[in-house]
Design a protein that fits this description.
There is one protein chain. With 434 residues, this protein is an alpha+beta fold. The chain folds into 2 domains: 168 residues, Creatinase/prolidase N-terminal domain (Creatine Amidinohydrolase, Chain A, domain 1, 3-Layer(aba) Sandwich), CATH 3.40.350.10; 261 residues, Creatine Amidinohydrolase. Helix content is 36%, strand content 18%. A hairpin with a 2-residue loop joins strand 2 and strand 3. The radius of gyration is 25 Å and the shape is elongated. The structure holds glycine and manganese (II) ion (2 copies).
């Protein structure tokens, strides 16, 4: 992505910050895996959204009205020895040339330079509470400035959570972001297709996972957006099952919930299909209910409907289906009123999607579900889960189904970013046919 995009994002943010305020955002700390080995590094989403900078040990500062330029990046200096061991660094010049920083300083010198930039500012906007070590660092810099009050210095008097404004901005995806999300959706869909094509009874869940993730990588994704859920049979009734180490059995369903991340944007797809390629009558019955629930939800994924509407649409179809098949008793109104359906459908129908798989942004405004607006992206993921310990007749046991797509609200209607992943019974059975 070109650096003008990030400059536009910073400009949009600055519009909402006072001239005497300062924005300070740290990237994520590296996490030790063991010894001197770290987990794969992923930059902080807010930090990356505003900078496009993906190295660890970096802090960005936006200081409106700063004479030498508003955008300052603290980052690692170039170091041929360390770069030989750990990889390339942009360095200070790279930070200015490639990322549009007006000034760049060594990360190690932040203690000396940043307190000076904070003096005389009124408010600090920062991602409060995200990284406790950085929070306490900020507080100690504020104290440091306060100790110099007799020399005429003023410390900022307020620390404001940046989330409130930045996350509202991130909630509305611009065309550059939508293009990346389309790509993430497409490459993830190809992986799900691949999983259906290779799946055979006797394979381990992690082997299907490997084939799917290979397709993600082949299509250009470096990382998954979250740990893949590859859950055969009863494991599908564990919503966030990630052990993925069981053998897949003929006659069981396989639920896969997995998405690729592309340039820090997530896809989040769930598909459910029979391990042996053919749905049993019970599996097909419940599957068609979930599919119909998703379709009913889609009708409400349009500007003007509220965040609550599409969930309620899915709940109504699932509940009616469970009543029709005898898994629930009573009338539709009673079942909705008592929420008896939550024995089989216990989660909401979706969440915002963006740089984070469970993306940022408020779901309610003034105590009401907010209205859908163009540019919002979210998942639509109804499901039915019948565990062996449920009240349902045994013939339904260990059927766990989730069907999840990623929806962009447009001016008129919506776009399904993940429709390439097959999901009708006929398409799945055709793809899996020997
Ligand atoms: N993959 C987690 C979720 O669907 O929310
Ligand atoms: Mn998911
Ligand atoms: Mn999801």
């Amino acid at each position: 992505m070109n650096k003008e995009i990030y400059a536009r994002r910073r400009a949009e943010l600055i519009n909402q910050v006072g001239d005497n305020d300062i924005v300070i955002v740290a990237t994520a700390p590296e996490q030790s895996r063991n010894g001197d080995v770290f987990f794969q590094f992923r930059p902080d989403s807010d930090f990356y959204y505003l900078s496009g900078f993906s190295e660890p040990e970096a802090v960005l500062v936006i200081s409106p009205g700063r004479e030498q330029g508003e955008f300052v990046l603290f980052c690692r200096e170039k170091d041929p020895f360390r770069e030989m061991w750990d990889g390339r660094r942009a360095g200070l010049e790279g930070a200015m040339e490639h990322y549009g920083a007006d000034d760049a300083f060594p990360f190690e010198d932040m203690h000396e330079i940043l307190p000076g930039m904070m003096e005389e500012k009124e408010k600090i906007f920062t991602t409060v509470g995200r990284y406790p070590d950085f929070d306490s660092q900020l507080l100690s810099w504020m104290n440091q400035i306060k100790q110099e009050v007799r020399r005429g210095k003023h410390a900022p008097y307020e620390i404001v959570d940046l989330n409130h404004i930045l996350h509202e901005q991130r909630l509305f995806k611009r065309s550059d972001e939508i293009n990346l999300m389309r790509k993430a959706g497409k490459m993830s869909a190809l992986g799900h297709q691949k999983a259906m094509q290779v799946c055979r009874p006797g394979m381990y869940e992690y082997q299907v996972q490997a084939e799917m993730e290979c397709e993600f990588r082949r299509a250009g994704s470096h990382y998954n957006a979250y740990p893949s859920i590859v859950a055969g049979g009863e494991n599908a009734c564990i919503l966030h099952y990630v052990e993925n180490n069981a053998v897949l059995k003929s006659g069981d369903l396989l639920l896969i919930d997995a998405g690729a991340e592309y340039q820090c944007y997530a896809a989040d797809i769930s598909r459910t299909f029979p391990v042996n390629g053919k749905f049993s009558p019970e599996q097909k019955t419940l599957y068609e209910i979930v599919l119909a629930a998703q379709q009913a939800s889609f009708e409400k994924c349009q500007a003007g409907y509220s965040w609550g509407d599409y969930h309620e649409a899915a709940v109504a179809v699932i509940t009616q289906g469970l009543l029709d098949e005898g898994l629930l008793k009573g009338s539709l109104d009673e079942a909705l009123e008592t929420k008896s359906y939550t024995e089989f459908y216990m989660h909401r129908t979706g969440h915002w999607l963006g740089m984070d798989v469970h993306d940022v942004g408020d779901y309610q405004l003034d105590g009401n579900w907010r209205e859908l607006e163009p540019g919002m992206v979210f998942t639509v993921e109804p499901g039915i889960y019948v565990s062996a310990s449920s009240s349902a007749d045994e013939r339904w046991h260990n059927i766990g189904i989730r069907i999840e797509d990623n929806i962009l609200v447009q001016k008129d209607g919506y776009e399904n970013l993940t429709e390439l992943a097959p999901k009708s019974v006929a398409d799945i059975e055709a793809l899996m046919a020997p």
